[in-house]
């Protein structure tokens, strides 16, 4: 499976590993191997790692706590106590760290728990930093991705132009064509 990375932060890309969150939910991390694939494609790891079923369950719990926490902040609400506990617990653990090889090259390697700790720490860094004010929800109906709007005018509407933005523009074009034909 090819994953999409359009959110501007890995923690938000991770939160986007479920599609259509509010309707016909589509889980992109349907088995443990897919969590490893996501991390490699995200550039967090150089090679696949072993992920247990329990680690995948923990990853999904962290992902959902992350999503709910960011949405709560966007809506001016306090995050849920259980979500705060999950995020703080993971963020306090050892994280992924690059390793310098004798050749002078580096390797990105680790374990599933270190990956989750890194994602939780990235989320807390996002919440504590100035980028939180630029986090938005995708305006495409049905898309529930969150992203950092890094555009100069801060007027980005979609999680990605090649994904939702293109769909919206094609729909609008077709609607104009239909209207002109009548």
Short note summarizing the structure:
With 182 residues, the protein is mainly α. Helix content is 48%, strand content 10%. The protein has 6 helices and 6 strands.
Helices, strands, pairings?
Blueprint: H1 10-15, E1 18-19, E2 26-27, H2 32-41, H3 53-74, H4 81-91, E3 97-100, E4 106-109, H5 112-128, E5 135-137, E6 146-148, H6 161-181
Antiparallel strand pairs: 1-2, 3-4, 5-6
Helix pairs in contact: 3-4, 3-5, 4-5
Radius of gyration: 18 Å
What topology, given as strand order, has the largest sheet? 1-2
Helix- and strand-based class? mainly alpha
Helix content: 40-55%
Indicate the proportion of strand residues: 5-15%
Using the alpha-carbon principal axes, give the shape: globular
> What is the succession of H and E elements?
HEEHHHEEHEEH
The main β sheet shows up as: 2 strands, antiparallel
- Mean of all residue-level pLDDT scores: 91
Report the uncertain regions.
none
Number of helical segments?
6
Number of strands: 6
Gap from first CA to last CA:
42 Å
Task: Describe what this molecule looks like in 3D.
It is a single chain. The chain has helices spanning 10-15, 32-41, 53-74, 81-91, 112-128, 161-181, and strands at 18-19, 26-27, 97-100, 106-109, 135-137, 146-148. The protein contains six helices and six strands. Helices cover 48% and strands 10% of the residues. The protein has a two-stranded antiparallel sheet. The protein has a two-stranded antiparallel sheet with strand order 3-4. The termini are far apart.
